[in-house]
């Protein structure tokens, strides 16, 4: 039926618009590339040094927290 097809097209259009709002897939890759720091103990990727510190305090409280310059 014509009605059902229209509905399907509308759904596809809405999905495309949602993808555009999220910046498509390329931005996802850029965001992943931003995670260049890794926890020196368990190699978990983290976004920045502050999160490393939080992660170290939470997960590896016995390990010394490396200075920020070690990650630059
Ligand atoms: Zn860790």
Automatic annotation (TrEMBL):
GO cellular component, one term: nucleus
The entry's keywords: Cytoplasm, Nucleus
Presence of the UniProt keyword Glycoprotein in the record: no
Compositionally biased residues, Basic and acidic residues: 1-19
Limits of the Small EDRK-rich factor-like N-terminal domain: 1-29
Protein's cellular compartments: Cytoplasm; Nucleus
Domain of life: Eukaryota
Protein name per UniProt: Zinc finger protein 706
Organism: Rhizophagus clarus
Organism phylogeny: Eukaryota, Fungi, Fungi incertae sedis, Mucoromycota, Glomeromycotina
């Amino acid at each position: 039926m014509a009605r059902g097809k229209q509905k399907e097209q509308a759904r596809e259009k809405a999905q495309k618009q949602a993808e555009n709002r999220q910046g498509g897939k390329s931005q996802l890759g850029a965001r992943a590339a931003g995670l260049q720091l890794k926890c020196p103990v368990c190699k978990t990727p983290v976004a920045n040094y502050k999160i490393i510190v939080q992660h170290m305090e939470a997960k590896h409280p016995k390990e010394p927290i490396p200075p920020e310059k070690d990650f630059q």
